[in-house]
Write a structure and sequence with these properties.
Strand content: 35-45%
Order of helices and strands: EEHEEEEEEEE
Structural class: mainly beta
Number of helices: 1
Largest sheet: 7 strands, mixed
Length: 119
């Protein structure tokens, strides 16, 4: 099991993976130099759990870094961070379904459209 660390300490392992295409899009959106992506896990969707992602520049006391590389940082709040181990983030710019694609390797099941999952 991978261990997440409190903000400010170097992470010994990455609990999530971010593709180069997603990293490029995050940079385009202004992530870096104090601004980061915040990912949350909340109840909802057909399979029971869904993601919420926003850009933020204010860290909370319980925030944990779940990804940090090349000046990019992704943060989750407290216990939500534990639910992200195994998350893979990609980006697609195709015409029909462009945007970030979040896939959870540890999901027991997912809904048909891929918007929600169950651990």
């Amino acid at each position: 099991m991978q261990t997440l660390v409190q903000l400010g300490r170097p992470s010994p392992a990455r609990p999530i993976e971010v593709s180069e295409r997603a990293r490029t899009e995050l940079r385009r959106l202004g992530v870096g130099a104090g601004r980061f992506m915040r990912i949350g896990v909340t109840a909802g969707g057909c399979a029971g759990t869904t993601y919420a992602a926003t850009l933020d520049d204010e860290l909370g006391a319980e925030d944990r870094v779940v990804f940090e590389a090349d000046g990019l940082r992704i943060v989750a709040a407290g216990e939500e961070a534990d639910k992200l181990a195994g998350l893979q983030i990609d980006y697609s710019d195709d015409l029909v379904t462009s945007g970030f694609r979040l896939t959870h390797a540890n999901a027991a099941r997912a809904c048909g459209c891929g918007a929600s999952f169950a651990l």
